[in-house]
User: What shape does this take?
Amino acid sequence: MQTHILPDPAAAGSHAAQLGATLIEQALAERGAARIIVATGASQFEMLAALTPRDLGWDRVTVFHLDEYVGLPITHPASFRGYLRERFELCLPSALAAMHYIDGEGDVAAECARLGALIREAPIDVCFCGIGENGHLAFNDPPADFETGVPYLVVELDEACRRQQVGEGWFATIDAVPSQAVSMSIRQIMASRAIVCTVPDERKAPAVRACLCGPVSNTAPASILRTHDLCHLVLDQPAASLLD
Assistant: This one.
């Protein structure tokens, strides 16, 4: 893992976007197409704002969605499908080759199977992700399943994860936060050729310390990123404040 520490969220987002753009351009140059994973949440605001204006040849890029709540309509302000349409897809200078959203409103088992078949067609070139306050990676809350080879699965959201969603303003109360989500699995994320993990904000400092300084453990799911051959962890100073 390569760790990059920038002064503030804007600088961290811009740096992560540059890293990701370079990796996408390399994939396009080497293979003529690129396949990427895009995350959501407050941690990705600045990164996406810096990435989307770039003319990278998006018409040759296929995008997979990292996670989505079960039962939440796309019209809800917290819908990750809605987030990605507004902050990513509609902001690009050209149309994508394909955008594979997670639909958590219908038969989620069938949706997991559909997306699993699509993502298994070829390797992922770049995964953009973040780390949760509880150390989760995607919606794989602790203790995360490090062993399953299923690309997408239905997971239970723990209280810390659900409280984070309230704290960030996505929901008014914890009871309003869905208890389940469809999430990309840990092993599927780790199968990506490269990972760009963007983590701003002092709220994330304890999770960053646990993931970087503690053991690699499913009780700190993002700690698994330390075992990846090409992972860039991009922090701002507040998120890195508890590191030595």
